[in-house]
Amino acid sequence: MGLAGGFDAWIVTVGSELLIGRVVNTNLAWLGARLTLLGYKVRGCLVVPDILDDIAWAFKTALSRGARVVISSGGLGPTFDDKTVEGLAKAFSLKLALNEEALKLVRKKYEEKGYSLTESRVKMAILPEGSSPIPNPVGTAPGVRLKLGETLMFLLPGVPAEMKAMFSKYVEPELKRIGPQIFFVERSMRVYGVPESEAAPIIKRVLKISDNLYIKSHPKGSELGEPVLELHITASGKSRELLEELVGKAINMLLELLSEKEARIEILK
Amino acid sequence: MGLAGGFDAWIVTVGSELLIGRVVNTNLAWLGARLTLLGYKVRGCLVVPDILDDIAWAFKTALSRGARVVISSGGLGPTFDDKTVEGLAKAFSLKLALNEEALKLVRKKYEEKGYSLTESRVKMAILPEGSSPIPNPVGTAPGVRLKLGETLMFLLPGVPAEMKAMFSKYVEPELKRIGPQIFFVERSMRVYGVPESEAAPIIKRVLKISDNLYIKSHPKGSELGEPVLELHITASGKSRELLEELVGKAINMLLELLSEKEARIEILK
């Protein structure tokens, strides 16, 4: 399975630039790693263009798939194609209105720089009913926090520096508080000289130790005329000590069984 | 809108490593760029873990959203968690059976290296009914091509070198043949000294020139104490000459209107 954690989390990344390949989706990797470390199971990611109906569809889909937490990035700025907030409102038929708290945040940002409020700037303070703004310590567009039933949604900007700062400062503390107390342990090893198809039955055997264990193999090409595999061993559960023990046991067993195949093995971390 | 092209294409990337943030989804960017250049409109990407039901859900979802082309990457190898082919079969209730053509490809790969066929290796030749294998010039797992109604699906491996080689050699020629004759032109410029919220109404005005035109602004931070924006101007349509003319006109208009705001402008390409 390969996913640690308790509650299901979904990531929605908004932006046509991700789909036409102009920008690599690093926000997904960053958010996925943070959510996993916090004990959430990142169950899927939807990448959608700057099209209102597509964004609304993504939020609805994440909810209908059982997300307890949804994090979006992208589409919060002042331009005509920043449509994520409107998409969220459309998804759940929520009214949009000027949010005084958000307006205060936006006004303060521009006043500091000597700019006044314009229509494009005020747009960033129009939020769906029931939501609250998340301050942006780096840029100008506030994020949005909305709880719908049991599901918490956080809309963050697409600029990585803004997204990361807001997640760390405002989203992570809440996710820690409400989240499952689940730990995640990972180790990696590199295996030379054994093709993936020969490692497959060995991995299958080692996995029988525990349901909390997961091993994934990544073929790394065979530039040296011999196969190179990276094995990624992870475990998740409630006790860090037991997990360390479990992963150690799995590594020993892999070392033993792969050595029988005359593999050379390098432990990475 | 920001998406060029005629037929809708969807990308499905399979792999828990993408969701726990261990691997950045570069396959999405590469496939998105290639499909866009071929004249397809990449309408969305679904990132799912190595869970059979989730993979099946992704294929079904892409189809139900109107995809004419679906490209997947990941989950084609010999290990227990390579489940993409089974997921495709499950999505559309197709029977899985040993494909003789695929078996020939797999056997040849291993015989060249002096290995024999094992259960894990034969697994890579079990395909859904109606599909055909795509040769893998770099690795061992064949890809899968399946046409369902009007929709063409191509399943490719997750290892970037294998995926790219197979797309270029076997997928792209077919997509070129059946695809719309639509061109895509792009240019970029960097704008210093004008905040995004002030550029927004200017962009809106320039966009009125044509429906085929799209301009997206990416704030690049303000390390120098001044705002920096990257503007990405794209156009798509049937005549390359008209598109070049259109983008040129948009750039001239942006230069004129942004200069009035005392911006410094750098044309990137």
Structure description:
- Two copies of one chain form a homodimer.
- With 269 residues, chain A is an alpha/beta fold.
- The first copy, chain A, folds into two domains: 8-178, Molybdenum Cofactor Biosythetic Enzyme, Chain A (3-Layer(aba) Sandwich); 183-267, Alpha-Beta Plaits.
- Helix content of chain A is 39%, strand content 27%.
- Chain A has nine helices and twelve strands.
- In chain A, α2 runs parallel beside α7 (160-178) and α8 crosses α9.
- At the A-B interface, α1, α2, β2, α3 and α6 of A face α1, α2, β2, α3 and α6 of B.
- β2 (41-48) of chain A pairs antiparallel with β2 (41-48) of chain B.
CATH topology of the largest domain in chain A: Molybdenum Cofactor Biosythetic Enzyme, Chain A
| Helix content estimate of chain A | 25-40%
What are the secondary-structure elements of chain A, in order, as H or E? EHHEHEHEHHEEEEHEHEEHE
Given helix and strand content, the structural type of chain A is alpha/beta
Rg over CA atoms of chain A: 22 Å
The main pleated sheet of chain A reads as: 6 strands, mixed
- The CATH architecture of the largest domain in chain A can be given as 3-Layer(aba) Sandwich
Oligomer: homodimer
Which CATH class of the largest domain in chain A applies here? Alpha Beta
